[in-house]
Amino acid sequence: MDNVFIERLWRSMKYECIYLHALETDSGVREELGRWIAYYNMRRPHSALPGRTPDEAYRQIAPTPSAACDPETVSAIPLASPPSSGLA
């Protein structure tokens, strides 16, 4: 598969988010990128999808997920806990 799609995503992210904000902390970067990715997927129309958002295009071809699988209702997956030393 050609990586033209991911290269376009990175270009958009740089020009529409990263270059426009003075992001100084890791948490600030994560927060701003999270907001931009949500905007990119849910609100930003794409010419490759005849003016639709990726979210609209996906929902048009995919069945509606149950509430338990909806991304807005699923909590973040916790990272693995460090292994215990076995000493109690």
UniProtKB/TrEMBL annotation:
Residues 1-54 form the Integrase catalytic domain. It comes from the Bacteria. Residues 65-88 are annotated as: Disordered. GO terms for biological process: DNA integration. Coiled coil: none annotated. This is Mobile element protein. It comes from Caenispirillum salinarum AK4.
